[in-house]
Amino acid sequence: MKAMAGIDMSPELPTVIAAADGVTRCRWATETGRDLTDYHDHAWGTPTHDEAVLFEALVLTYFENGLSWATVFDKRDNFRQAFDGFNPAAVAAMTPDDVERLMADSSIVRNRRKIEATLHNARVLLNCSLSRLAWQHQPCKHYRLRSWADGRMESPESQQLSATLRQAGFRLVGPVVAHSFMQTVGIENGHFEGCFRADQRPAVSLHSASESGDSERSNGLITRFVAPASK
Q1: Lowest-pLDDT range, 49-53, 152-156, 210-214?
Q2: Model's pTM, two decimal places?
Q3: DSSP labels for 20-56?
């Protein structure tokens, strides 16, 4: 969704909105024709080191590429079922017959190139950690989004992450995909200035983060480790 990145937005529109509950949120949470409050407050941008959740976020991000954000967002539960909960080992074990089965599954986005890339990327994950590859590119300094003009589709860090993932063997991981992925999983805080989540930081350090622990699915992509701060 371009509104998340602040792209192609009218400069007259406010970047954040004070809702009826008294909480100020990014405009896209409530002003895009649907209520995304729960996703905004509890999922998007919540830091995670969970391998399956990171894999899910990466896959859904490149499936979204070239489509509307809502198309993939509304099918995320179907994607989870189709790809065995995004368990990398289970997806890596899928066969060409599974690719054909998924190509016939109308509940997901049927794109052969992206489906085959997902199986390939899962096999890459058998030999590396997506958490370690991704979190080493956490920005050293918070890039503040004070206006729509500050919005961007990629960053120096996403360019570096893209190169790292490609070197490891991943497919469909260009800088734009990498940037959206980084914001989705909390590696970079993409909330606009004034939003109650804009100043949150990961509660786990970059180099000592545990890759185990309790986790649960939410209505969005992820809910891990850090609960949104309240005001």
Answers
A1: 210-214
A2: 0.88
A3: TTS-EEEGGGTSSSS--HHHHHHTTT-----HHHHHH
